Amino acid sequence: DDSSRSSIMPGAHIHQNTLGDGLVPLINKLQDIFTQAGVDNVGGDLELPQIAVVGSQSSGKSSVLEALVGRDFLPRGPDICTRRPLVLQLVHTPYQHASHHNQAPMEWGEFLHRPGEIFTEFEAIREEIECETNRGIGTNKGVSDKQIRLKICSPHVLTMTLVDLPGITRVPVGDQPADIEKRIRDMILSYIKRESCLILAVSPANTDLANSDALTLSRLVDPDGKRTIGVVTKLDIMDRGTDAVAYLRGEVVPLRLGYIGVVNRCQQDIAQRRSIREARASEAEFFRHHPAYAEVIDKCGTEALGWTVSRILADHIADLLPALSDKIATRRAEAQRELVSLGEGRPEDPSRQSAMVLEKLHGYAACFTKSVVGKSDDLSTSSLEGGARIHFVLQDIFVKGLESLDPTRAMSEEDIRTAIQNAAGTKAVLLLPDDSFEVLVKQAIRKMSDPCVKCARIVHDELGRIARTLINQQNLQRYPRLAQSVEDATRDFLVEGLVPAESMINSLVECQLAHINTSHPDFVGGSQALRMAQQELKRRRGASASAGTGADDDEMSGDENNFGEDVLADVTQRNALQRKRDAKNKAKTALGRKLSGGSSVDASINKVKDKENDVQALYSHENGVVSLKEPPGRIQASEPETDEELLQVLVTRILLGSYFAISRGVLADTVPKAVMHFLVNSVQRGLQQHLIQSLYHPNLVPSLLTEHPETEAKRLAARNKYKALSAAAAAISAMPADLAAAGGGIGGRR
Fold this sequence. Notes:
Helix content: 55-70%
Distance between the termini: 38 Å
Radius of gyration: 49 Å
Shape: elongated
Largest sheet: 8 strands, mixed
Number of strands: 10
Structural class: alpha/beta
Oligomer: single chain
Strand content: 5-15%
C-alpha cells in the first residue's frame, strides 16, 4: 500500500527541494506567528499569500481538499458542514524524516489551538474540527468567521496552504439568520478581495458554469481572472454525450490560470468507506477511458490539481515576498517607535520606581526651564511659545498698554476746575493749586493698579499653559496620577509665586501714592508750568479775537495744539473742539448747565443774560432787601471768570500730565521686574525642589506610576505586534539565499 500510495505522486520524495517546499512553509510560519501573537496580519496592508477555496454547498469542496491530502478528515453530512474558515496548511515531509526502521511513513496533524498535541488518527482530526466548531458557535448550524488552523504533515501531500470557506447557501436552517446567504458571501469576499489571495473556485460540471456561485464571486474581485484557479468537479455524472472539455479549455468563462477537472467520490463511496487511494485510481481510470479528455489530460485529475496549485501558490508567494519583506520591516520599525513612546511601564522593583519618578520630575523641571529661557529642543517656527509669550505679555501688552494710558484725556477743564474748588474747601484758591494737583495725580496713579496686577496674573496663566504643554510632551499622561499630581504641584508653586508678586506690585503702586515727589528732575515744576500756561492763555485770547473777526475755529484748535507740546497737545485739541460745540448751544442757561452737569463754554451772546438768570436763581431783591435761596442739590464749579482762574486750570493739567508720565514710567519698569523675580525666575530656582518635596514619598511613588488601563493594553498589543514582526523578519532572513534567488527568478518569469 505504501509503495502504491507513493506512486500516486511521482517525484514526491524529492519535492522538498522545490520552490514550494521553501516558500509555502515560510508563509505558514508567518501566519502562525501572527495568529499566536493575537494580531490579524498586523494591519490591513500586510496580507499574507494564501489560497481560498470557494464554492456552493455540495459543490465538492470537501472532496477536493480530502483528495489533495489523501485522507478523510473533514466533517460530512447532508447539511452545511464547513461552518468556520479552516486554514489547512499542507506540509510535505520526506520519507527519510518520517520513517523509522522501514516502518510506514508517519502522517500527523496539529491544531494551532492545541499546540504541541499531535493527531495521528485522521478520524480524531475530524472530531476535533467538529468539536472546535461547536465550541465556538454551538451545534445548530451557526456560522462564524473565526478561523480553525490545522497543519497536516505527510510525504503524500504537496506543500500548500488552503482556506476552506463555508459553502454558499441560500435557505437558512437551524440557528442560521435569515440573511445567511449574505453573511457567507461577505465572509468569502473578505478573503478573496485581497490581492494576495488566490481563489480556488470549485464548480460542479453538471451545472451551467456561467452561473457558478464560485466564479460569480471571484469575478467581483478578480474580473480579469488573473488569480483564480477553476476546479470543475463531478465530471463523471454529467449527462451522457456531454463533457467538460470546453470548460477546461476556458472557452466558457476564461481564466488566466486555467481550469483543472477532477472526479470526486460519490456519497455511496463515502458510505462504503472507499479509500482516497482507490478513488484516485478510479479517477485515473475514468480519464484514461474517456477519449474526449485525452487532449486536455494535463488539466485532469487530483494529481494535476495538486501540482498546479502548489506551483501557482509558490510563484504567487515569490512575486509578493519582496514587497512583503519590506512591509514587515516598515511595520516593525513603526511598532518599535510605538513601544518607545509607550515606555516600559511601571517597574516591579521599588528602587527602580523611585528612580523613574525622580527622572521624570527632573526631566519635566528641566524642560520647563528650557522653555522659559528659550532653549527648548523643539523650537517652533510657526508661533511664539514659552518664554517668548511671556516677553510679549510684559512688553507688547503691559508696557505698551500702560504707555497708552493718559488720565488727562478724560478730564475736561470743568472737571479740573471742580477738583480745584473741592480741594480748596472753605479757602480761596491760590495761583498754584497744590492740593488739587495731588488729589488728581493720586487718582490717576490708582488707575494703573489694576493693569499692573493683571499683568502678573496673565504671566501666571502663561506659565500654567507651559506646564500643561510639557506634561503632554513629556508623555506623563501615560501615568494619569503622576500627570495630575505634577500639574497640581506646579499650580501650587506658581500660586506661591503669584501672591508675593501681586503684593510687591501693590506696594510699588502704594509707593507712588505715598509721596508725590515734585522735586523729580523730570517733573516740569511750577514756574515752568506757569510759563507754559501763560503762553496758552495768550494763544487763546488771540484766537478769540480772531474768531470775532471771522477766523476759522479749526485754526484756533490748531493753535491750541501747540500748547505744552508733549504734555498738552492732545487734551488742548479736545478742549478746543468741546468749546466749539458748546458755543453753538445757545439755548441752555447757566443754571440749567449746573443742574444737568453739562460742560462749561466760552463767553457767548447770552452770557450776560445767563449770569443774570443764575444770580436770580440763588437770591433775589425785594423792597431793597436781599432774599437768599437754598442751593441746588447738585452744584458744579463756576466757570473761570478771570485769567487767574483759567491759569489755575491750565497749570494743574500741565503738572498732572508731567507727574503721571513719571509714575507711569517707574511702574512700566518695576512691575515686569517684580513679575520676573517672583514668578518666572522662581521656576528655575525652585520648581524641581518643590516637585520632589511634594511628590517624592515612598508611599506615594507606586500610585504615581499607575497607568491608565488603555495604556497597558496598548503596550501589550504593541509588544505582541513587535515580537510577531521581529519573528517574521527573522523567518524571512533565515530563508536560504539560493531559495530566495530562485523565488525572485520565478516571480520575475511570471
